[in-house]
Amino acid sequence: MSRPPAQPDGLSPTEVAERVAAGRVNRPPRDGWRAYADIARRNTLTLYNALVVPAAVGLFLLADYRAAWAVGAMAVANGALGLAHELRAKRHLDRLSVLGEARVRVRRGGTDVPLPSGHVVADDVVLLAAGDTVVADGAVVAADFLELDEALLTGESDPVPKAVGDPVKSGSVCVAGGGAYRAEQVGAAAFAHRVAAAARQYRHAPGPTQATLDRLVRGLTVVAVGLCLGYVLLHLVRGFPAADLVSMVAATITSMVPQGLVLLATLVFVLAATRLGRRGAVVQQLAAVEGLAAVDVICADKTGTLTTGRQTLDRVVAFAEPEAAVRRWLGGFAATSADGLNKSIQALREALAAEAEHIDVRDQLPFQSHNRCSAIVANGTGEPRLFVLGSFEVLAPRLPESGRAAVEAAWRELLPTGLRLLAFADGHAGPEGFQGRLPDIPLRPLAVVALRDELRPRVADVLAGLAAQGIRLKVVSGDHPETVRATVRALGAAFGEQSIVTGDEWANAADRVALAERCDLFGRVSPEQKVALVAALQQAGHRVGMIGDGVNDVLPIKRADFGVAMGAGSQAAKAVAGLVLESNDFAVLPAALAEGRRVVQNVRLAAKLFLLKNVYTVALILVAVGVCGLPFPYLPQQVTLLNALTIGGPAAIILAGRATGRTGGPNFYADVGRFVLTAGAATSAAGLAVYLGSLLTLGHDAETARTLLLTTLILAGVGNAVVATAGDRRLIAWAAFGVGGIVAAAAVPPAAYFFALAPLTGGQWLAVVLAAGASVVVSAAFNLGGGFGGGSRSPAEGGPTHGGPGASGRPPPRG
User: Fold this and answer.
1) Count of helices and strands (H, E) across the chain
2) Partner of 741 at 20 to 30 A CA spacing, among 295, 366, 494, 681?
3) Of 740, 674, 681, 686, whose CA–CA distance to 713 is shortest?
């Protein structure tokens, strides 16, 4: 095979400007105002507003202006907050799309120019190297043993060789060799843009926790509507005024539907993604934030993840020929190799550039994971000569016995150093060429090549930080097991003296799940075996994260519950990851995981406060109104005060907090449900005792009874906020503010008039304090004793957190 022709010079600046002016640019159509219209419609035309707005209008028409203003203000506030939060989320996602945009190399006017893929224009000559993604449809104009992976487009897993003139489609990935293609179909006309056009439009894509909250809101809305229908029947049977009916409906909707919970949860995910972005960790989608919280096992590739990935030549141990001659051939091999972005080839090119001998390449075998070697056939004066660089295991069967023994001795001597070791050999090339694999011909050992790859700074601290959060790290590498052992030995006692599982041992294991659970170090594993390892850990009930940087890490990253790619890694790895460490700082990872756990924990704590009110509201309505036939427990404007002091303020404090901790268990409903039911039952008992006692025993009027009830609920609510967070000092301060708020509302005449509060005597204040205090004590006995709330516990105390599925949308943890 002859060497391919030189790539064309590409477009001139004038030609580029003409295509930009004509709109022939590789950008998909922007959704623009349509997306903003959808957001506005989604936050105004809601079921909540469909129920609340008519109630507010009815109250105005019935001259109950205080209640009407309160209900109307709640509808406007919910709509405005939802609109503001979702617009902020959209802007954030738009910025992420720019940060995550693939970068390409384009040849223009004979010069190679790095550009974002969105700046490519029609007829641009786009260069390809291993790891690059094809960003526009076109045709190959230069192919240097080019092979593309089209699995994302066709499902075909085998690489496809490409020659000059062959078509390429956007979305395929260069896995071997290099070349260039002419961009013919760009923007909306490109294949990947066409099939994913709907995905690129902005859409509200909630994560698992947000989806759970959406289901809760819908379910509670159904309950509220059912209660309102019951009021209509009571109105027909008992004949109470229509104004009371409308007031009951408005109070029920505003107290039963926790619309603000979803809005606050969305906002906190946006804020978390923004904070991570400032640290150099780009979240690809908001749902990925809570995926961080679920992970309890992380599989990490060694090269480029635990290590810097920048290799340097340490030594060349020569055989058969003088070292100077071997270095010349090795330098020439690296200079002509099609694996220009391979880190080992780059290190050899840099170190041996001055010594390299020119080699006229006749044929070439690019490096691939299943080959574990690369080779070239060089033309010469005599018979063509084959040069091979690869792992000792691949070359050993082709070496003569004496030569194999010498290479193995040098190999074993260097293995404990942790250097990356490659064998270099030559032989006589056969007439058949490579045909996708190394031919089975005798080879002569030339050298053992040792490359140095340093550990990333602070990697030991990172492992300690992960362990403190209950996360187990497994090193999964394609390198020799002894190289892996030497690398992790430098980390101290993090892995102890564990044995290393090889790819062959994994393939022959009878119980892979048990092996995956037991061992943390894996060497000489293929990409397919990495996928199988991730699947085995998932089968054992773990939520698995995968960190990688190369094309060979794409499949395991996709299979994992949560994928992380290094910023300096391949475009293909970054495209499938939920989180990209653009700063290439591995030390960011523990902070990112802690941020995800904090978010999920705080959303759950806020959910407890929102849903607590639903339990005691239903109990009060069913018993007081349904069974005893008493006036409705509170008015719409009183619900506004109750929401502000027991939910709005505490929830905002919780969601803005930065304390980390466990979520309280793997299941949202179990964790939140226990608190809501126990605290709700205690609060219901206290509220019913006060309300029924006031009306039935003491003969108070409805305004006094409602004032006593509202005061009891507010005192119990702020107390339960403290219980839910296990004594968070911020919530203790808010509890004092809440007590002052209800006292001030009752004491200031305009506020007392608006909220329809009656003055209370000293004895009545004592009664409500005792009732509320007793309910909080009962709630604390059930929840703090059982370990729920956990706001002050550390992850190390609480164990691994399973906050919900990762960005891949897998089901909740197994087991």
Assistant:
1) 31, 21
2) 681
3) 686
Residue 170: how many CA atoms within 13 Å on its side-chain side? 28
Mean pLDDT of 704-723: 95
User: Strands across the sheet with 444-452, in order?
Assistant: 312-318, 444-452, 420-428, 385-390, 373-379, 360-365
H/E run at residue 450: strand 444-452
Q: What's the whole-model pTM score?
A: 0.66
Q: In what order do the strands lie in the sheet with 579-581?
A: 281-283, 579-581, 562-566, 544-548, 297-300, 472-476, 521-523, 501-502
DSSP assignment string, 95-134: HHHHHT--EEEEEETTEEEEEEGGG-BTT-EEEEETTPBP
Residues forming CATH 3.40.1110.10 domain(s) in the chain: 312-452
Catalytic residues, which ones? 301
Task: Specify the pLDDT at position 33.
Answer: 62
Helix/strand/coil (H/E/C) assignment for every residue in 629-694: CCCCCCCHHHHHHHHHHHHHHHHHHHHHCCCCCCCCCCCHHHHHHHHHHHHHHHHHHHHHHHHHHH
Three-state secondary structure string covering 262-311: HHHHHHHHHHHHHHHHHCCEEECCCHHHHHHHHCCEEEECHHHHHECCCC
Residue 59: C-alpha distances to residues 315, 636, 642, 673, 752 (Å)? 86, 10, 20, 35, 19
Contacts of 373 (CB under 8 A, 6+ apart): 365, 367, 388, 389, 390, 391, 394, 395, 438
Rg (CA), the chain: 33
CA-to-CA distance for 752 and 46, rounded, in angstroms? Answer: 32
Residue 104: which of 83, 133, 76 has the closest Cα?
133
DSSP class per residue in 151-172 = HHHH---S-EE--TT-EE-TT-
Over pLDDT 70: what percentage of the chain?
A: 82
* Helical segments of 693-728, H only: 702-724
Q: Which residues contact 768 (CB under 8 A, 6 or more apart)?
A: 690, 708, 711, 712, 715, 760
Residues 42-63: tens digit of each pLDDT? 677 766 677 777 777 876 777 7
CATH number given to 312-452 = 3.40.1110.10
pLDDT digits (tens, 9 = 90+) for 329-343: 999 999 988 777 678
List, by residue range, all CATH 1.20.1110.10 domains of the chain: 40-87+205-216+245-274+593-793
> Is residue 239 very low, low, confident or very high in pLDDT (cuts 50, 70, 90)?
confident
Q: Which CATH architecture is the domain 281-308+456-584 placed in?
A: 3-Layer(aba) Sandwich (3.40)
Name the least confident of 201-215, 383-397, 792-806. 792-806
What's the fold here for domain 13-26+120-200? 2.70.150
Instruction: In the chain, list all ranges with CATH 2.70.150.10.
Output: 13-26+120-200
> Hey, what are 661's tokens?
């901790």
Most confident residue range from 390-394, 624-628, 675-679? 675-679
User: What DSSP character marks residue 320?
Assistant: S
CATH 3.40.50.720 fits 40-87+205-216+245-274+593-793, yes or no: no
Contact 783, 679 (CB under 8 A): yes
3-state DSSP assignment of residue 780? helix
Task: Tell me the three-class secondary structure of 201-228, residue by residue.
Answer: CCCCCCCHHHHHHHHHHHHHHHHHHHHH
